[in-house]
Protein 1
Amino acid sequence: MTIINSIWFWIVCILVVVIIRDVFIQKKHTISHNFPLVGHLRFWLEKIGPELRQYIVANNREELPFNRQERSWIYASSKKENNLQGFGSDQDFNSPGYIFIKNAMMGYNAPADHLSRKNPGAVPANKVIGLYHKREKPYRPYSIVNISGMSFGSLSAKAIESLNIGAKIAGCFHNTGEGSLSPYHQMGADIVLNIGTAYFGVRELDGSFSMDKLIQKAKENPQLKAIELKLSQGAKPGKGGMLPASKVNQEIANIRGIEAGKDAFSPAFHSEFKSIPELVNFIERMAKATGLPVGIKSAIGKLEQWEELATYMKKHNQGPDFITIDGGEGGTGAAPHAFADHVSMPFTFAFAKVYQIFQRHELADKIFFIASGKLGFPEKALMAFAMGADSINIAREAMLSIGCIQAQKCHTNTCPTGIATSSKWLQSGIDITLKSERFNQYHHTLVKEIADIAHACGYEHPCQMTMDDIELSMGDNNRTTTLAKALGYHKTALVFENFNTLFECPYLGGKEARNRLSP
């Protein structure tokens, strides 16, 4: 009893001290001043509110950015668990924009020697990046699904390494993000080097671009397959970025070419070009110096400069080899609410408008289009392919596959899963061997299901999907309409020979995965 009494004595003392502090000392919080102790309970409940809603309050389909059903499908797929659904769909088929995929009466039945039977998770892209502009080193991605740009520094070393090893096993490419090429990106996967406005990794100390450093990177890294020049991204188009000083250790500083212990700012705009001709000239200079295909990544708003770009490309036969369209719903980068919520168009409208511009200039079949923006699910990916995408990039879905719980703490350096933090302690729980295999299995499942549905529609490859193969619910009187009617165009038909021809291409990437599948 003495021990218990002593414990209660100290508890009462602590509570009295808190009450005295709240009422007589602190003046910042009216709630805790007027209601000591109870006020603290209110702040604590508010702090864990997102977690309470995530696990207790929200139903399977209402949460954003990814609802429980979507997260569960990714988790189950990455762990080789049962990701099937029983007792029918719980979706509202009449909700506006609901996707219906039109299967054929008799689908495509692959022959016994078809490579998709050997590895149903391997589907190369139908187009070759850089072939039209006669780049020295054209590139055909081994996979139609690849990892979008996520920088080392924003993501932890172990997270980047897990994703890269997983990408090597899967055969997909890994975009570095604008934080440049780190040692953790160099575990064997194909790499796309992302260059942002701060020119991290290919810059001088004053922030200016260095062509010599870019050439050196290309020479030293044979896995580097393409360069992506980032004009903007879905989370914050027209807004610069900032990696807080707490995350900028000496290792990150060395990789990015900046000072340690200081905020790492990305300007809102590029200093190397200010017009479309200057942009194209910059792209051509990088392509000529490295031999690599060069593309651009952008969120979409006003279309006048896209029209100007297409006109210039048609006239001069120069410009980006690929275009990554990032929907406004993208979000691995932390951003102000107004930018994240209201600036730039969502993927469906953004892609449709840009694609039609290049289609009018007879360039749609010559440029490689990459789609990005919550597309890491079979039905959404197939809609993107039907619209004209040649591959899709996934970011947050890839994070979820290696253990992200959507805590939305990415910008605080306190990510509880160790994925979006520089904390060594929080990272210590990441088993790289396990997590890399989980990404690989998620990727395999996603690609397989995309291919399976394409076969059900009567096609050998997802690139053959048309806009008449997708119907959208109009949300009124149970009506539906085709994607072509809803968006006002048909995609340009592509030349597709057969599946095996893709694997025989001399420019095919994914060396390790390719060798495992060689006929």
Protein 2
Amino acid sequence: MAQTSSPPGPGSLTTTQRRLGRDWRLAALFLAPTAVLVSALVLVPIARSIVTSTTERHGQDNVFVGLDNYLALAGDEQFRTGVVNSFVFTAYAEIFKVVLGLAAALLLHRLRRGRALLTGLLLVPWVVPTVVTAFSWRSLLDPIFGSVNTVLTATGIGPLLATLHLVDSWPAGWLSDPSLAMPSVILVNVWKGLPFFAVCFLAGLKAIPADQYEAAAIDGASSWRRFVHVTLPGLRHVITVTVTLSSIWTFNNFDLIWLLTQGGPGDVTAPYVLVAYSKAILQLQYGAGAAVTLIMLPVIGGLVFVLVRLLRQDTGVNLPGRTRSAPWSGTARKVLPWAVAALVTGLLAWASPQIFWKAVVVLAVILLIVAAVGRVVSALEANGSRRVSSLVTSVGSGVALTGLLVFTLGPLYWIGVTAFKSEGQVVMRDNDLWPTPWTLEQFTALFSNQPFGRWYLNTLLVSAASTTVALVCAALAGYALARLRFRGAQGFTVTVLLTYVMPGALLFIPLYQLLIGVRLTDSLWSLVLTYPTFTIPFATWLLTGYFASIPIDLEEAALVDGATRVQAFRRVLLPLAKPGLLAVALFTLTNAWNEFLFAFVFITKDGYKTLPVGMQSMIAGDVVPQGQLAAASLLVSIPVVIMYAFGQRFLTEGLTAGAVKG
């Protein structure tokens, strides 16, 4: 972490400054807003959740029961199922996101033209709100009216899947069949998270020195050996950090699963977060619900510990008591990944044997195709046919990129065309891939039948307010952590990181109780006050990196010219940090725009709902107004996509410099 120039000698510092740091007064002033909000909205609710987990509701009173709620979970079949589902969902999703994300990054890295455009298109699934993702895939995977079954039947792939026993029957009920529901939910999560992995891996590929590949080529290494011995080692850190971050998010996922299946059929897709929601919000057993979230805290804590160590190693900060590696650390570092992989594989085979073998088949097919193409290219290179090998590589890359774009943009294309169909076309499925004629009927019905305009305004107000709060607090705290010298800076940075990755699942129960106590449920204030739990920590973390990257000489020159530290911050640092501020604004605005869990729990009245919750309420049982939902999805997604189109460069910098490297 960057600091200012060498501090004055000990004689020029007061006793308090020697104890608390030279800049402790200014640091306290700058950190106060973030510290107050993080303490009030994250640390205090967690402490309250711990207390709540030791109580049980009897009528209007909460009775202390000690550890009974935790002990009861040992015999709770619903809880055990939820934990297994969360583990299975996370493990398979991360495996496929790594494989496909790495493949996408390698394909994009080889491009000389159009890379920025294709990267922007690839980012769209990650940008669009989760409610849009869930609606589009629910419609596409519908067993009767969905396009997936129609296409697979027409191409003969569907009956072949049934013959190979990869599906039990055809046409398949992707989200209603107990054997297919979890694989389908995993597929949608992979589609949603693939862009994050691809962009992070692409940035990592750019950072690998070209001379390493040149040296390997001179030594006669084939393409495969260059990948194994140069690319993978060069990406090891990025892969580990990205997978750790994504695992935390995926393990605590609620909105995507709820919107796709609501945990069904039965409980086959219900994660532990949904179990906590059911106990706390639906059954009003706050103690049992809090126990469900807290008992999973060691798992999340382990992932956070790994992430903190990686980020501190990346910034060159030595861990206390670890100034020298143990003699066995090199061997352990080599053995540990294989041990973890073997353990995860065994657990997956035990927890979900049906999904395990299906995943093995899919991965084997992908790897065989890649290996076959690599072997052909290597053989051609060995025979001196570089022109032919280049042609084969270009054709293979083109086919792969085309398939990737179809997979990425297909659901979004379906939304776009469905929004402009008439109700008759939607119901009868006439001209499924092209509206004939184009009509605005669905948009008219949307605004006539639903308070969509009110939902839009609510979302805009809440997103703007939470983004403003995040920018102000993060700019002050980020500068203090990057530039000022004070005791506890490293501890505060780690606390910010911990609160950033702390899942909403751990906070929604105590925050709900708090809001009920102050009578702020069913109010936009409930969202404005709680959204900083996930916007401020991330924004602070990101801006700390930006301020630290600005040359310190510029600030010192302003101080020499007579400017105060506050004036230097306002006149020098803030203008230079505009790219970072824009990235923060983009991320926080998008997160607030797409947020579902808090809005779903805290808001029940139509007049205060935000867009994600309002769109979810449009589905009544089995009645799904596909045309109106498509029109709503388009209107919800367009502003975010436009923002990301103009801010793609800042987004990429934020993902790679802030969100990954810290």
Protein 3
Amino acid sequence: MMTSVWIQIAFYLIILIVLAVLLGNYIGKVMNGEKVFLSRLLTPIEKGIYKLLRVNVTDEMNWKKYAVSVLVFSGIFFILLFGIQVLQGVLPLNPEGLKNVRWDLAFNTTSSFVTNTNWQAYLGESTLSYFTQMMGLTVQNFVSAAVGIAVLFALIRGFIKVQKQGLGNFYQDVTRIILYILIPLSLVSSVVLASQGVSQNFKGYEQIDLVEPIVLEDGTVIEKGVVPLGPAASQIAIKQLGTNGGGFYGTNSAHPLENPNNVTNVIEMLSILLIPAALCFTFGRNIHDRRQGRAIFAAMFIVLTLATSAIVVNEQMATPQLSQNQTVDLTTNQQSGGNMEGKESRFGIAASSTWTAFTTAASNGSVNAMHDSYTPLGGMIPMILMQLGEVIFGGVGCGLYGMLGFVILTVFIAGLMVGRTPEYLGKKIEPYEMKMAVVLCLATPIAILIGSGIAAIVPSVADSLNNSGAHGFSELLYTYTSAGGNNGSAFAGFNANTIFVNISTGLSMLFARFAPILATLAIAGSLVKKKKIATGAGTLATHNAMFVGLLIFVIVLIGALSFFPALALGPIAEFFGM
């Protein structure tokens, strides 16, 4: 049984690497303005967009102007998305006549999708109209993902350029990302998903006869059910590719109309990490040292593989209650084996556990199983992946620039060990860069710990919990970890749709998104002015196995020091209490 599980995981990872290398080269060419196979078709459209928006692409922005553009751009879409939700009842494409979204839920959802978090405190099929899903959420899935990638390339230019000021043009970057990368990939993905049975239409919800009537406790007999339809495939494609994760339906990719079979499961799961993994190779290509990109990819890949393995093993071993203290063999060929609670039987433990690792390593948040039903340690690993700062691939763009923050910390620590001024890619790392790197790396822990700490002492939050004790605390901790990590996945079992939780998690998402962005751009603005330093005998090599190991150590150390006390009160306490 376990042999087949490892074969499945190896298959997913090998396909991911192959696709990431190919896509990484393509992205590098696009962002450098080089010709690609889509140039003849899309270049006239690109120029038309610049003309329509009156964008002068030769106008290079310094880091402050780039940061203001990011904030203004995101702010405009914040207002638009909020307005669409609170006016939903009078807008078109609302065949079910759904009402306007309550203000606090609209604020939470807007904060969520603008920050590329896509945390959802609502059921999509019973709360949002087709218009809101398409023109609000799906559009934001494109632009929020593009913002993250654009900021990454501003940082890359900070490393490449020597004694300059400009980091590129934000509007040109966003246009190229959406036009050449996100739209083509999403178009192909959505067509394939729709061909496999994922809903893509404008029909109203349909009533069907149940195969077997349901009798309620009061004697009421229910003979019909409602099948929610709608334009799901087009949103699902970009929700995965853009590491957004917001589901069209409440149960996300566990829903048979979002993820009907193993073909769609593989496509959606690989899409989660495709662009974040590809950007590692893009980074190496564009700084003209592919070894650096491979080293960062290796650090991410090692942690991802270990995390995936840990989840699979814990779910396959199940719990003492399921195995009846090891007297029942849960790994035989005659039964599904392991902990199948909360998992879809069409996917099983291997595909569910791998998805769980992928979606929490990236700041994606889509799920094909309910994490609340995982074993204590199986549910702790996804939390840790988010608490590390979403840098094990992480979100599109933001994962890599977050990892580069840890790289700066690592070379600084290594420099202290050998008594040498730290440098990376030929640029000296000085106090200013270190201060901004600390902000970049600690924004997530600050958002998570402060948010969950305040929530834990608010009496009304306890009423939102579905469980008491250690597992109940895990529900609360996971909620604020997901929001503070800009992930969006849910532990379930927690009623998040209250005024306090909506506002607090919304503010947490905004802080965890834009504080690192400003810190990243500040680092880029400082680096771009510096001169290159020649590599010498004492220069720390940042592309070998020793540096990869040191980088992993620093990432895990910061995560362990920040979150071990909280984890000890939740999943660890639950594990030892079983």
